[in-house]
Amino acid sequence: MSATGLDGHYRDLKRGLAALPPRHQLLFAASGAEVLKPNYRLFVAETGWGNADFVELCIEKVWKCVSRQTVSSSEVSDLIERSKKVAPDTEMFEQASTSAALNAVSATVSALKACASPSIEYAIDAATAVIDTIWGYVQIHEEMDPNDPALEKKILRDPLMDGELVRQRQLLQTLRTMPALDATTIEDIRQSSVALVIRWK
Length: 201
Known about the structure:
Layout lengths: L4 H14 L3 H26 L4 H15 L6 H13 L11 H20 L3 H22 L9 H7 L1 H18 L6 H10 L9
């Protein structure tokens, strides 16, 4: 990570995504949702609240969009609204897993929005949800002071955060080299979007 930190990372993402076709931007968003998917199920198992099967169905729909299988705009809109209803309220749950679950839904909603209208911002939002999940975990797990002026540098040195930022940059570079996306390529990228499972205990 360069001295510009996360600001530099986001600038690079925006610049790189802007050079990609809309379908590639959608795939980038889908990858972020895929990475965070297990954390919502863990939250449901811990709290008994929510609907993990539905969130995972939404992500399947996103991959169908990436593969150019027909998903109507009305269906996408309905899935977005229903997703918002199963997003946990951090004021209602005291479990540490709540924020990770909320980020998983946020990434899913961003990817669904990209299905309806691929956008750099939706792709960035999905990437941000993954980064925020790791940030929160590292800060809590390492008992870091949120007011520490060196907080960002310390979190960026964590192997989990460094690995995710590298993953995002590598995915961007991979997509740059692919003028077209076939079924095999899409599946390979999906399989390489390794689950980020945050275990708080």
